[in-house]
Amino acid sequence: MPVIAVDGPAGSGKSSVCRGVAERLGLRYLDTGAMYRAMTWAMIESGVDVDDADAVASAASDVTIVSGTDPRQPTIHVGDIDVSGPIRGDAVTEAVSAVSAVPSVRQRLVALQRDEVAAAREAGAGIIVEGRDITTVVLPDADLKVFVTADAAVRARRRAIQDVTLGKEDVDVDRTESALRARDTKDSSRAASPLAQAQDAVLLDTTDLSLDQVVDQLVGMVEELPRT
To answer: 82-88 long-range CB contacts below 8 Å, 24 or more apart?
Structure first.
């Protein structure tokens, strides 16, 4: 069964696409961004200064993160607490880049991510893993590597629609676009595992495509892989 690695900037649609592909092909699904958000939530709840890398590194070692891999209902817990809702709040969104940049945090979560892939392989199941360093760091030997992107303005509109769906008020598309561009800069310029397109990753620009069209394209790529 295949191991699919997908990277891309915030708002590119990779989470929805990966879930759609996983559901259609019967694969497991791992949202690594949710893992970093969960760690960030834990730091905020503990009163840790997220801009103090040493403090984050020290506190992170005591945090237990558990990810569900069912694409129909992916879950994320910190210990026994379901944080799938809280991790999408503004406080976490604003702090996650700082926490994600801490090398020891990345090392720990990358190990957890690889464990999930190993568990899928052991169970004879395929898995699609999405994030920002999956093709370059976490799974450089994946069967298929894809970099999903889209124009920043389109990504902002998509994120704004998502925010409205989540019940957020005072959604401003221009402000969302500025925040996404700032996040892009932080993620692509950090020293630890920066966001980048792997040389052998397929570029998939979703700017002018619907969700179904993107899912169709990625499913087609998976189906063209050599059978093992």
So the answer is: 83/37, 83/38, 83/41, 84/34, 86/41, 87/34, 87/37, 87/38, 87/40, 87/41, 88/37, 88/166
